[in-house]
Design goal:
The chain has 251 residues and is of the alpha/beta class. It contains nine helices and ten strands. The chain folds into two domains: 172 residues, 3-Layer(aba) Sandwich (Rossmann fold), CATH 3.40.50; 68 residues. It binds adenosine-5'-triphosphate and magnesium ion. Magnesium ion binds next to helix 1.
C-alpha cells in the first residue's frame, strides 16, 4: 500500500519467460524523494522488474501501486506520473536533440510551445543546450545517454525509472548524470535506478535492493548493508554481494 510517505509499493512480483524465472516474488517499497537502487549482475531481473513497475510488462503474479494507483488496473493514470529511461538508447538519430525531445514531449501530451520550452530546459540541465540543433547521430555515446535520460523528464514525472543510465560512458559524463539525478531528487522527484556498478549505487542511492537470480536477497541503506557484513561497515558493497552469493558481481 502506498501512503503519504511510500510512493511505490511492489508486492510479490513474479515473471517467467518460458523456462526462465526472470523475477521471483519480489516485494519492496520506495519512499517519496528517495533514490532507490536496484543492484544486481547481468540477467538478475532488473530490467524485467522495471518493465513491470512501469506498466510495460504484465506480471505473472503480484501487484504494484504507485501514488495510490495500481500499475495493473490503472496503468493509464500511472503512466501520467512516471518517466522511463530505457537501458537501450531510444532516440531518432537523424533528428536533432531538440526535435527528439519535442517529439517525445508531444507524445507525452505537451503542447508545442510547452514541449519546446521543456526541451531546451532539459538539454540545459544535462549541459547539451549548445548542441541542441545537432543531429543525435553526431553525438558521443555519453551525450546520447544524457539525452536519453531527459526524454524521460519531458512529462515532468514524479517518479523516474533509470535503467543502467551510466553504462559505457566516461567518468565526466557519469558525474554529470549523478549531479542531474541528485538535483532532481532535491527538487522532489523519486528515482529508481538500476546498475551493476556497486560504487555507483553506494554513492548515489539512499536505499538499495540487491537482486540476484530474480530474487531480492538484501534490502537497506548502503550503510546498513555494509554493517550486515562488518559491524564497522568497513567493507564495500562488492564484498557484501560476494559474501551473500559466493560470486563476484561481475562474473
Ligand atoms: N523478453 C524476454 N524473453 C525471454 N527471456 C527474457 C526476456 N527478458 C528477459 N529475459 C530473461 O530474464 C532474465 C532477466 O533479464 P533482465 O533483462 O531482467 O536482467 P537484468 O538484470 O536487467 O540484466 P542486465 O544487467 O544484463 O541488463 C534473463 O535470464 C533474461 O534472459
Ligand atoms: Mg537490464
Amino acid at each position: 500500500m502506498t501512503t503519504d510517505k511510500v510512493f511505490l509499493s511492489a508486492s510479490g512480483l513474479s515473471k517467467s519467460f518460458d523456462s526462465v524465472q526472470a523475477v521471483n516474488d519480489i516485494s519492496f517499497s520506495i519512499e517519496r524523494q528517495e533514490i532507490f537502487g536496484l543492484l544486481g549482475p547481468n540477467g538478475a531481473g532488473k530490467t524485467t522488474t522495471i518493465r513491470m513497475l512501469s506498466t510495460v510488462l504484465e506480471p505473472d503474479a503480484g501487484d504494484v501501486e504507485i501514488g495510490s494507483r495500481s500499475a495493473l488496473r490503472e496503468a493509464g493514470e500511472v503512466r501520467k506520473i512516471i518517466g522511463v529511461c530505457p537501458q537501450e538508447i531510444a532516440l531518432y538519430e537523424e533528428l536533432s536533440a531538440i526535435d527528439n525531445l519535442v517529439f517525445f514531449g508531444r507524445m507525452a501530451g505537451l503542447g508545442g510551445k510547452e514541449a519546446k520550452e521543456a526541451a531546451r530546459a532539459n538539454l540545459e540541465l544535462v549541459g547539451l543546450l549548445e548542441r541542441g540543433r545537432d543531429a543525435v547521430r553526431k553525438f558521443s555515446g555519453g551525450m546520447k545517454r544524457r539525452v536519453n535520460i531527459v526524454v524521460a523528464l519531458m512529462s515532468r514525472p514524479q517518479l523516474l525509472f533509470l535503467d543502467e543510465p551510466t553504462v559505457g560512458i566516461d567518468p565526466q559524463s557519469r558525474n554529470h548524470i549523478f549531479d542531474t539525478v541528485l538535483g532532481l531528487r532535491d527538487e522532489g522527484m523519486t528515482v529508481l535506478y538500476t546498475t551493476h556498478y556497486m560504487e555507483e549505487a553506494d554513492r548515489l542511492c539512499d536505499r538499495i535492493g540487491i537482486i540476484d537470480g530474480g530474487s531480492m536477497i538484501a534490502l537497506g541503506s548502503p550503510d546498513e548493508l555494509k554493517a550486515s557484513l562488518d559491524q564497522d561497515g568497513d567493507v564495500t558493497l562488492e564484498e557484501v554481494f560476494l559474501n551473500m552469493t559466493g560470486r563476484s558481481l561481475r562474473d
